[in-house]
Amino acid sequence: MRIGLVCPYQWDVPGGVQYHVRDLAETLRELGHHVEVLTPAEHEENLPAEHVTWAGRAVPVPYNGSMASFQFGLVSAARVRRWLRDGAFDVVHVHEPAPPSASLLVCMIADGPLVATFHAATTRSKFLAAWGPVVRPWLEKISGRIAVSDFARRVQVEHLGGDAVVIPNGVHVPAFAEGPRLAIHDPAVPTIGFLGRYDEPRKGLPVLLEALRQVVRAHPDARLLVAGRGDPDALAALVGEDLRRHVTLLGELTEQDKAAFLRSVDVYCAPNLLGESFGVILLEAMASGAPVVASDLDAFGRVLAGGTAGVLVPRGDADALATAVSGLLADPGRRAELTAAGRAVVAEYDWSVVAQRILTVYETVAPPGGAGVTGSAADDAALLGDVAGAPHGPFRRRVHR
Fold first, then answer.
1. Looking at the domain that runs over 2-170+350-399, which CATH code has it been given?
2. pTM given for the model
């Protein structure tokens, strides 16, 4: 099968959707399918040499408590048409198609079997409330809809219409299960891990730091390893003198280093406050054997099997978080139980399983012998003009720039 995947976010900026598209593409190729990816990037030379096509640069805009990519216009539309023509795809799979991006452009321009995956989880979105009715006619062209969680499915149903089958994010379990630890790993030091954009409020690092102040009273040698992107000076000010010797900033990690990091912690902590539709990092932690303590977000609860594969605490509650982490650090038997439970759960999320479920959707909307995906005959300027002039179109002014 010839498959086109569309990533709406900058490929050379780390992010869950980017990793999802990358890993799905790799898995489908391993299964013998021809896969091409269309994606924006800050620099074209940052893309892989084969099977990834540059959709141009994108402008970051606030979306779902984070930053998404805005990419719209005649130049981008021309790139989409060329990619569709050259790809001769049996099916095209777009990700997060609602915001103005390469994914939405494909929905507007393409005719034929389209599949979409919805990742976002924000039930009160002014953007989607205004923008959803504008884009709904193009989203109705989608033949197969996937949501990464029940929460993401509810958002899609409420704001964009239609329904979706829930197929979770995947993880390469073997890549995390075995391998080295970080060079700084010390089995005698109780170690807590956090990975994420640490200066993004919804990730909850300030709650974890407040909890850590209690943890170190019970475990004076405990340390917190912080990995991810952000402003180191702002983090230093947030940590303060009292926690300085207990916190180590690792910065951004490669995929190999991320796995080593997760294998090096006694407890992985996800204190996120909102806006999470899934929780891939929880899967990666469980695959690495790290016991998990996480906020009781709906998405996290589902990944952790309602709390049987990890400990769930009320979001934003530093006292409860401290109690859970301190308890696990003091109880190696309980940590071993959570490690075993986590590995049993994460086996169902391995990409070898998830990709087969996605292929079933492809085969449903694009049976053998079908006509495949082509570019519509509509005039791109007219299409973009429809969006620009639509009532409540929050991006109508930018389209003309």
1. 3.40.50.2000
2. 0.83
